[in-house]
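Message: I would value a second opinion on how I read folds in token form. Give me a protein, with the fold worked out from its sequence. Write it directly below this note and I will take it from there.
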Amino acid sequence: MRLFIAEKPSLARAIAEGLGKGGKDAGCIRCGSDVVTWCFGHVLKQCDPEDYKPEYESWRREYLPIIPATWRNKAQPDAAAQLKIIGKLLKEAKSVVNAGDPDREGQLLVDEVLEHFAYKGPVARIWLASLDDRSVRKALDSITDNAAYAPLRDAARARSQADWLIGINATRAMTIAGRETGRSGVLSLGRVQTPTLALVVARDREIAAFRPADYFVLRASLGHDAGSFAATWLPGETQVGLDNSGRLADAAVASAIAGRIKGANGVITAVTRENKTKPAPLPHCLSSLQKEASSKFGLTAKQVLDTAQSLYEKKLTTYPRTDCRYLPEEQFDAAGQILATLSSVPGLEQVAGKADAKLKSAAWNTKKITAHHAIIPTGEVPGNLTSTESGLFLMIALAYSLQFYPAMRYEAQKIVLAIADTQWEARGRLILEAGWSKLAAEEEDGSKEDGNPKEAGGEDEAAQALPSAVQGDAVRCLDVETLKKKTTPPLRFTEGTLIEGMANVHRFVTDAAAKSVLRENEGIGTEATRASILETLKKRGYLKADKKAIVSTQLGQEIIDLTPLALKDPVTTATWESKLTDISQGKATLSAFMAEQVRVLPDLLALILGPDKKPAHTCPDCGQALYRRPGKKSGEWFWGCSGYPGCTVTCSDDNGKPGAAKKKPELSQYSCKACGKALVQRSGPKGEFFGCSAYPKCRQTYQLGQDGAPDFGGKK
């Protein structure tokens, strides 16, 4: 028996259909001598600290750092039954085919199941970038040795173990440090979530600190023998009245310039005309899809990912978790069939129907393919789709269809002229062939630094076509307009622009060397994880939605203020992602990577806890850390020993610091009838009573008898 282990049921069904003659059984599909079973994503998860040592259930600084000697997994609670079925099938299997999703996590989640059951038989790998029938049959004919994908597994394992190592230890350290200084709740840190949060906090604070300032733009209407056009004033290097950004901030200077050139004659000093082409925007990767869908539909990154996954499982589009916007040349021959299908889809009749399947755009470049190619339609006819699915499918299909239209051709024009000792510039664009641009809007230039809206003049002059002119021609200033403008703050992040920012984190780094390195890397996080990172930050109350914008909360800002630079610097995390890529390509090893994480961990924790690792406030009885805790009444606080219940010392709260210690209750000679532990005499709202010393595990109480002993006849 050959056993296929798929990442999820939808993938298993597609494989079974490709194999044919399938019959359902408990947790699997039998197809002749082949059996297809499935996971539910990761059916195993990392063990928790307390699984290694029970005492780790208590968060104490003396236990840090927590470093497993041997890494262990355990079953996901909701996957235990299916995991048992896979184990039984493995005992019957002569060979196994790893059918995880075509990425490093998909590789790991099946490989770790095989390791869990100590399977030693032969293992192959099937690589499925799309689930349509043609692609599945082709993949079944191209099954390879699973051992070739070991670097992908190691990269995923490195990510998982390092995330656990840093996340668990840093979160515990930050939470402990927070409790010792009067903060309550878990203060969560992570190698991707924290730098992402830092980006938003920095942007929000830049906006909060922004103070608008007036500036002036001079626009002249100029007459020429071949027609009129508009030009913008260019300040000279020694021009007075400019602000630090080179904008004209002096109204009097602006008025003087306008008065001097109105009606004056000038001369053209330079003319530039250059024929250019602009190809259609490339097909979508996940982050570009998330950005556009966020802008057009207001969808969250997770909604886009979930919808794209649904389209993939419905066999309508290819694998969604890709960071690549290029296509393999080997798939070009399928374009005609895909376009023919799309031409029958409402909303695509014109763009797909008039596309030229013989045109090959720059998107077709096998050399630029990473692990996966761009997200494109498979050529299957879409059926019953939700409105969100339909909108996203049309977005994907449009981007693909545009690849079969000519590039936009235009003439870029520039005229430089001098009038009354001032210099002016006019820009224009003459469309020679619209090509794809008559069907879709031009895509924003992703190479530009984002965050600031275009300020005028700043205005785009491309709408005008400049007259036929040459150097030396005379012009006359017909009129001049002084436009009063205000500087504007950076734009707030949306989920789409934040996802893009994570992928292009070099834009937010000022150091030139670091920027250069980061430009060559993948940014922070991956296409598969960025949406979940944003969801995590929102669930923890660090980020929140404000209409389409995503903003940091007060708690989120406090977290960043408390976090050492090494954990919130995107350079650190992006470099880490680069090392994971090296592992996936066989250029580095899992063991070397993890050895480095273990080496730097103590120094990282010292930055959080302090170099001496001593608590800010210690228990007067046992010397362990004191934690500030909320009292029974709203607004009340007290300090309790971190060694509780072993140490029950408490102190009053004195303006955020420990006050006088309360006397520890002494163990009495009497024992609890419920658990056998010693009783202690306590005071409550209703007077004196006896309570169990094992509280809160045992909550048994007894009334104080007339003889001073506990009344075992009944509860208090």
